[in-house]
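Q: Please design a sequence for this.
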């Protein structure tokens, strides 16, 4: 059976329950698979024995893995001897990972950091267009400083870690592969291994040792802004891909493991980041331990079995406990039960999110099993000093310190860093012809072809003849940045132009090349506007999500272009002219696009294809003789939602109950995908789908922001016009105010703020990332709080909300507060009070703040967004 007959590498057991719109027989006929089809498994991919877990609990639920690399007694003796010779300061320095924007060469020489990183949007010399030579120069300089023992007294080479998550994506001119969600649709582990090996080469050209990949999140809520970093909602695909990509980056344990052609990999983020409540990035996962094992841990089974040497801790919590400080998960499960003997690295100041910790001090994380603190910003220096003090006081034991350092050194020895030449002198270093090499781009182009999923093809409009006159429309048609998504040169993938991608090809450019070569005509018009003389035979409309990364991509439902259907208007405009429409949808997740389906004759889920846009033309068009060059082979690795609110529809596990399987009713099921041989009479009917299931119908409930305590993902801050600071203790102050906790009904359920009147002071709530409040703003919701004032206010007291991009709206509530001096009162203000331009309720960063330059004492509590406002809600009518 060839790979076109495999539905994402899974047996038809996934489709044994009735579906609302598609039977098993129909699905199999469409995909060319019989009910007796078997699974094709990638060579050397480990299998996971399925055991009866009914009698198991706790640690026994977790797989006991045999380390992929056997213990080497001679190596362990070498590590022990080196650790024994080190001072506490030298050991702690191995645990500190600063960022290139925050250290100097002299810092490296003085402290001898065990590693360092460049975060998204950080470049040598702070230059986005830094050349490979600039990257190499920085790697060489910091390496030489690390092995200079004239100041720190020890010679241990440092390591550079980078987020190469879809190619060497921080470097201008690098090959950019489809993001993981597209690779999951391709379901080709061997291709993924090849992609990883190419990425390793391009990274090594710039002198870097270590990449923070793969992400093995098993996404369970598609509202999550990192959904596109997940290969699939199904843990089987994630497990197999994790094995493949780790082998591609590091080499096979039995082969060229960590040779001069390979880099260290990092399996991330441990654990459960793809399953947080409501898909909130860095939120809380409340899954059972069994689900944590069966779903979220499978990528680690694959990655550890391939010999992964690094695991990154996750920002999220599990049942309210931050993973960076969860000893049970990091030590008992990962290190002891699963046999991981490499090191655990933190994520971007993730240790500072643990209750009782700050970015500058966190013994709890080290004691839980974190081996390397990722500590960007100037916080690295106090963290170093505080950690040394905590070891000396016994708060962090010498044994825990030695274990962390031993793990770091073990990986460095295995990677040959003590023996390899310096970064500038390694075999691949400086071979700039490998950055974006033609052979690398060809693999990326293949990955684009295999990632495309054909969801609709009425009257077999596809494939197209290249001899036609083709209109190419949509704002993503000639936009390499948009087709590449987040984590592309910049962290968010924004502020990029086509000129920033030398050697890359936009989707339009790929189409133009094919059509022009065959004698046809390609007309580019992003808005679809053409002269009367330019009537096309067909329109290809390329549209979709704007780039985003991490929590910036969190949304509260899956409706595409909610409240601003400009792409739908373009599709309808073309259809009204009698032009057949082929939609190419660019997105980091499946979305509710019923109206867009209805306005399209064919619909292709193209995900985020990366730099090789011509891979799309390869599949959409025949050759000049009308022969198919490349068929569609991609299959959905994520279920497609039937409503905007159906964000957690996931294909049931084999162990799921009959009831759970019966409840699986997406619009389009996992594993679906047409090809040019599909029997279209049996395909899903995606015409005249319901378009009335809009966001306004979304069921919403009260959203507590501060109720007894500040609710995740918010944190409290104070500010003046000049500065803003987060709160890490029960008392804080700045030049305008002092704030402390107080007891109103229960302990510390309110805040007391004394404004001194010298300047405007602000207190409020803020999130690391913007949050989507459109469901509330589209309804009759209100912002409510309980408040008490000590004295009559003669100046305004502003109640406000703010959104991304420094947009804010505020109302003066001094009159209402003055009406009941010295006593608590509940106030409620319609969100319409804050709705004027430029407020964007889709990107709220501060859902509540109070600001005044009056001299007054204010107490407040119970800040809530009310889904059903009270009778006394103030409407702020103009």
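A: Design:
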């Amino acid at each position: 059976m060839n790979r076109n007959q495999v539905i994402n590498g899974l047996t038809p057991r996934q489709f044994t329950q009735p579906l609302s719109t598609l039977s098993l027989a129909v699905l199999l006929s469409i995909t060319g698979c019989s009910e007796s089809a078997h699974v094709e498994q990638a060579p050397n991919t480990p299998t996971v024995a399925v055991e009866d877990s009914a009698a198991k609990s706790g640690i026994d639920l977790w797989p006991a893995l045999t380390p992929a690399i056997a213990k080497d007694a001679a190596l362990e003796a070498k590590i022990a001897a080196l650790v024994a010779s080190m001072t506490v300061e030298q050991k702690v320095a191995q645990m500190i990972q600063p960022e290139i924007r925050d250290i100097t060469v002299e810092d490296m020489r003085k402290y001898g950091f065990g590693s360092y990183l460049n975060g998204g949007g950080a470049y040598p010399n702070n230059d986005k267009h830094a050349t490979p030579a600039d990257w190499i120069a920085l790697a060489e300089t910091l390496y030489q400083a690390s092995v200079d023992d004239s100041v720190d007294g020890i010679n241990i080479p440092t390591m550079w870690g980078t987020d190469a998550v879809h190619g060497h994506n921080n470097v201008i001119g690098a090959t950019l592969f489809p993001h993981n969600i597209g690779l999951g649709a391709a379901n080709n582990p061997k291709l993924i291994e090849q992609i990883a090996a190419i990425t390793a080469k391009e990274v090594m050209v710039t002198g870097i040792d270590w990449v923070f990949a793969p992400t093995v999140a098993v996404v369970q809520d598609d509202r999550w802004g990192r959904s596109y970093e997940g290969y699939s909602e199904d843990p089987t695909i994630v497990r197999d891909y994790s094995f493949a990509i780790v082998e591609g980056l590091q080499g096979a344990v039995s082969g060229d493991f960590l040779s001069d052609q390979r880099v260290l990999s990092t399996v991330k983020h441990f654990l459960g980041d793809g399953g947080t409540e409501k898909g909130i990035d860095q939120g809380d996962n409340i899954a059972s331990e069994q689900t944590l094992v069966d779903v979220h841990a499978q990528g680690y089974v694959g990655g550890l079995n391939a010999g992964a040497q690094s695991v990154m801790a996750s920002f999220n919590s599990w049942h309210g406990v931050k993973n960076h400080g969860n000893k049970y998960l990091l030590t008992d499960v990962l290190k002891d039960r699963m046999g991981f003997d490499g090191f655990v690295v933190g994520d971007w100041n993730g240790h500072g999110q643990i209750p009782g910790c700050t970015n500058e001090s966190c013994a709890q994380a080290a004691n839980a099993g974190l081996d390397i603190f990722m500590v960007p910003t100037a916080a690295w220096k106090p963290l170093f000093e505080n950690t040394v003090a905590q070891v000396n006081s016994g708060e962090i034991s010498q044994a825990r310190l030695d274990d962390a350092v031993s793990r770091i050194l073990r990986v460095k020895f295995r990677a040959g860093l003590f023996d390899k030449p310096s970064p500038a002198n390694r075999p691949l270093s400086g071979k700039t012809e490998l950055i974006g090499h033609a052979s690398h781009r060809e693999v990326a182009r293949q990955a684009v072809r295999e990632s495309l999923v054909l969801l609709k093809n009425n009257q077999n409009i596809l494939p197209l003849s290249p001899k036609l006159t083709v209109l190419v429309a949509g704002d993503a048609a000639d936009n390499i940045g948009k087709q590449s998504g987040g984590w592309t040169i910049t962290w968010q993938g924004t502020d990029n132009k086509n000129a920033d991608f030398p050697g890359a090809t936009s989707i339009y450019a790929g189409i133009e090349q094919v059509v022009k070569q065959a004698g046809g005509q390609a007309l580019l018009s992003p808005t679809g506007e053409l002269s009367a003389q330019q009537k096309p035979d067909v329109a290809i409309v390329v549209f979709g999500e704007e780039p985003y990364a991490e929590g910036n991509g969190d949304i509260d439902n899956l409706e595409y272009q909610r409240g601003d259907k400009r792409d739908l208007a373009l599709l309808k405009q073309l259809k009204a002219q009698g032009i057949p429409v082929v939609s190419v949808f660019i997105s980091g997740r499946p979305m509710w696009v019923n109206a867009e389906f209805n306005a399209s004759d064919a619909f292709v889920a193209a995900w985020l294809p990366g730099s090789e846009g011509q891979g799309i033309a390869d599949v959409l068009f025949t050759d000049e003789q009308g022969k198919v060059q490349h068929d569609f082979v991609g299959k959905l690795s994520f279920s497609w939602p039937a409503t905007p609110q159906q964000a957690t529809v996931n294909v049931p596990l084999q162990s799921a109950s009959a009831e759970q399987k019966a409840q699986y009713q997406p619009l389009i099921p996992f594993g679906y995908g047409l090809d040019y041989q599909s029997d279209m009479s049996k395909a899903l009917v995606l015409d005249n789908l319901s378009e009335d299931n809009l966001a306004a119908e979304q069921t919403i409930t009260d959203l507590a922001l501060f109720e007894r305590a500040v609710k995740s993902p918010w944190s409290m801050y104070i500010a003046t016009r000049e500065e803003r600071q987060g709160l890490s203790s029960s008392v804080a102050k700045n030049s305008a105010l002092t704030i402390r906790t107080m007891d109103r009904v229960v302990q510390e359920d309110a805040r007391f703020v004394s404004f001194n009147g010298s300047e405007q002071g602000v207190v409020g709530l803020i999130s690391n990332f913007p949050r989507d409040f459109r469901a509330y703003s589209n309804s009759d919701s209100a912002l409510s709080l309980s408040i008490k004032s000590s004295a009559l206010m003669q100046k305004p007291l502003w109640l406000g909300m703010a959104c991304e991009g420094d947009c804010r709206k505020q109302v003066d509530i001094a009159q209402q507060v003055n009406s009941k001096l010295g006593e608590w009162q509940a106030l409620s203000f319609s969100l319409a009070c804050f709705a004027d331009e430029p407020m964007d309720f889709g990107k709220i960063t501060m859902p509540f703040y109070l600001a005044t330059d009056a001299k007054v004492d204010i107490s407040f509590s119970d800040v809530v967004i009310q889904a059903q406002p009270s009778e006394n809600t103030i409407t702020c009518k103009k």
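Q: Thanks. Anything notable?
A: The chain has 24 helices and 31 strands. The longest helix spans residues 189-205.
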